[in-house]
Design goal:
Largest sheet: 7 strands, mixed
Oligomer: single chain
Strand order of the largest sheet: 3-9-10-16-13-12-11
Bound molecules: glycyl-adenosine-5'-phosphate
Helix content: 25-40%
Shape: globular
Radius of gyration: 28 Å
Number of helices: 18
């Protein structure tokens, strides 16, 4: 695990992001607002590419995932059922001396606002006892600000997926195992937003709920559940997979994806949550972490959540969330009665366990009794349904943050090197080494001189040819070397320069119809035919 903290690097990245229009402080002209960030022209392209690439690779390229685009404000009972109203909180302490509010579990890492050389833990300010602070933003629906009209800005996109599970099953041709994906805004009233955009109050998530058969169902159909060995790759889904293999499949798939968009493997780590970190419903959670300049931190959580969420929504809404599986129905009919009953009892016991595990010491007796009553509602009826081929699917949840990923890409792409210019002078080249797949601008199109109409016309022609397929930036201002540097800082992987040879006006007439293609990372230049540009560039930037 890396705990290197490179503040100087982080400062350079923050400065470049503002200067080049990747990220701005929200509401800056009014002094900003803590925990909120805007994306400038380059940042907006980068973030859009991140979300589009995720959607393309996770939804369009897989046959077992369907998309959803749900509202940010939903029925408030959703957040009661999910446990967010009751327990989505962080422990907060107030400092009576400096009037600051801090996360009680981060006092060692948070600088005291009055004595920044000390952390809050070590400063002598008088602090209150920790108390729970709910992270959900509240609002009112309709004109009356009354408790009855309270609603919440969603703190995660996941719950809408659970709430629409039945509609997606009924309206699409998906069969378990399959996933539902969603990209969208989430809001958390974080006590201490920090590390630039890393912990914000408004951010975007890219979440998948991947619904799988409970292990008892897999056993009924296949005779046994296939457990993956530590060295086995789980790339190609198999009918025999239980939750363990699916979980492995997902964290391998997600690691591969991060590499495919340019994050280096050596900076990515899987960290298993320890038993005391795990949410009460989770069987296991593997976090994908990245070496940020401020330390190794979470990019994505991949949780095996059992059937906790659908069970809770079934219990709270009164609407069945069971799934009928014809293959399972046929299989369970063939089992002898004792084996079928054993599997049904095991399935029922697991569901009761999820409910009981939700009981927390801090809950009131009434809340505990309510959960106990729900657990008792898991009865013989559930066994009957199971024996007829119905079950509540389990879920694996790969949940990523788009803004955190953009930050990881910015940190990973930033590079400085000393180069010698055409006049032999040494200078520092700042270059954002984005993967062409996510780079905000794919190609810079540069006429050698702006006061030569033939060069400008040809450059604009090439720009028009490439533009339907990729983002192109046309730049005719300044010396060509300066223009290359500007594109290096923007992270543009390719530049196309149009010169007199292109027009057939140079000494070497064979170069007519060719341009200089300059590669950002190596700074190498090659001469290519205009007609070959699309075939050369398009596959690299998608
Ligand atoms: N549905 C599960 C869930 O929301 P989470 O670990 O709380 O799990 C998932 O959030 C991801 O969302 C995180 O790995 C992170 O990338 C992103 N995320 C969470 N809180 C964030 C915040 N305050 N600012 C930016 N990104 C955040």
């Amino acid at each position: 695990m890396s705990d290197k903290h490179d503040n100087a690097l982080m400062e350079k990245i923050v400065s470049l992001c503002k200067r080049r229009g990747f990220i701005f402080q929200s509401s800056e002209i009014y002094g900003g607002i803590n925990g909120f960030w805007d994306y400038g022209p380059l940042g907006a392209e980068l973030k859009r590419n991140v979300k589009d690439t995720w959607w393309n690779d996770m939804v369009h390229k897989r046959e077992d995932i369907a998309g959803l685009d749900a509202t940010i404000i939903m029925h408030p009972d959703i957040w009661k059922a999910s446990g967010h109203v009751g327990t989505f909180s962080d422990p907060m302490v107030d400092c009576k001396t400096c009037k600051g509010r801090f996360r009680a579990d981060q006092l060692e890492e948070t600088a005291c606002p009055q004595k920044p050389s000390k952390c809050v833990q070590d400063c002598d300010g008088e602090k209150t006892e920790p108390r729970d602070f709910n992270l959900m933003f509240k609002t009112y629906v309709g004109p009356v600000e009354h408790e009855d009209n309270v609603a919440y800005l969603r703190p995660e996109t996941a719950q809408a997926i659970f709430a629409q599970f039945k509609n997606v099953v009924d309206s699409s041709r998906q069969k378990v195992p399959f996933g539902i994906a969603q990209v969208g805004k989430a809001f958390r009233n974080e006590i201490n937003p920090r590390n630039y955009t890393f912990r914000s109050r408004e951010f975007e998530q890219m979440e998948i709920e991947f619904f799988i058969r409970p292990d008892e169902v897999v056993e009924a159909i296949c005779g046994a559940v296939q457990e993956p060995g530590a060295d086995d790759k789980c790339a190609d889904p198999a009918r025999e997979w239980g939750w363990n293999a699916w979980h492995k499949h997902w964290f391998e798939a997600r690691l591969d994806w991060y590499e495919s968009i340019g994050l280096p493997a050596e900076k990515l780590h899987i960290r298993w949550q320890t038993a005391d970190e795990l949410a009460h419903y989770a069987k296991a959670t593997a976090d994908v972490e990245f070496d940020f300049p401020f330390g190794q931190q979470e990019l994505e959580g991949i949780a095996a959540r059992g059937n906790y969420d659908l069970s809770k929504h079934q219990a709270c809404s009164g609407k069945p969330q069971i799934y009928f599986d014809d293959e399972f129905q046929a299989a369970i009919k063939k089992l002898d009665e004792a084996k079928a009953k054993e599997l049904a009892e095991s399935y029922k016991a697991a569901r009761i366990k999820y409910f009981r595990a939700a009981i927390e010491d801090s809950m009131t007796d009434e809340e505990k009794a309510e959960i106990e009553a729900r657990a008792e509602k898991v009865t013989e009826k559930d066994i009957e349904q199971f024996l007829k081929g119905n079950y509540i699917p389990h879920v694996i949840e790969p949940s990523a943050g788009a803004d955190r990923l953009v930050l990881a890409l910015l940190c990973s792409a930033y590079d400085e090197e000393t180069v010698t210019d055409a006049k032999g002078k040494e200078e520092t080249r700042v270059v954002m080494r984005f993967s062409p797949r996510v780079a905000p601008i794919k190609v810079g199109v540069l006429p050698l001189l702006k006061n030569k109409p033939e060069l400008v016309a040809k450059a604009k022609e090439i720009k028009a040819m490439l533009q339907p397929l990729m983002t192109v930036f046309y730049d005719e201002t300044g010396a060509i070397g300066r223009r290359y540097r500007r594109q290096d800082e923007a992270g543009t992987p390719f530049c196309v320069t149009i010169d007199f040879d292109t027009l057939g006006d140079g000494e070497d007439k064979s170069l007519e119809g060719t341009v200089t293609l300059r590669h950002r990372d190596s700074m190498e230049q090659e001469r290519v035919k205009i007609e070959d540009l699309i075939d050369l560039l398009a596959p690299q930037v998608r």
